[in-house]
Amino acid sequence: PQARRLCVPVVGFLKAAGRTGWAFARGSRMTHCADAGWFLVLYPQQSMARRVQRCWRWFQPDAQHGGAEADLIAALIQAEVARHGLDPERVYIAGLSAGAGMAALVALRHPALIAALAMHSGPVVGDANNAAAGLHTMRRGSIKALPQLLQEVADLAVFHLGMPAMILHGQMDPAVAPRNARQLFEQFRAVNGLGAEVPTVERVLGLGTEKAYRRVDLLRNRKTVLRLCEITRVEHGWSGGDASVRYHARSGPDASALIWRFFQGQRRVAA
Hints:
This protein has helices at residues 2-6, 21-28, 30-37, 66-84, 98-109, 131-140, 146-151, 179-191, 255-264, and strands at residues 10-14, 40-42, 91-96, 116-120, 165-170, 201-205, 213-220, 223-231.
């Protein structure tokens, strides 16, 4: 009833492989962030009957595999928006590792639904087409032409409204090479129609501390549309999380808070 009266925003939050939604909620502390920011969080979870490690099939982005999972997640979010009277202009999605890869697929396949996207420690989009290729992508990024990879996953002609995106990645990540983050930045530069002539705005925050990170922004009309956070002392884990939960790091800035602040500045308004 409160959600229906207040028309609150919603964040779909996708976990890493081998984790449950509950573990992700605890490790990221996103639920605490939601309590403070007054938004609703959904934690979709892959079935063990489909994948033993509960891994989203971001590495098979075709319509029968990863694309189908992305469509189901989008349908779940839409159902909850309608059920609880949530704000359809403030629907966001975020994920970690495999969850970041799937979050990208959801946003690219459903640009009319998703107002903004956040990817933490995620792989470049569209490079892999099977599990073995997915491992190669994680370890090295892509050696293919980035625009072509996007075209194989989404119709860029429909992105006239763009897709605001935030990318976070630990610079000590041994599982998903940091090169993936830089390639994601270039891919979403293209999605948002921000050509090479648009300059980046760069800052280093928390210098000399365990929370240090480099922030790179691309702006349109003085508003940040694309943001890359390269986190100095984080490996493969959620920055500023509960380190007692696997794939969450105590060091680094609070990724949940950073993501929510970015989302707050984004709204999907129909053309």
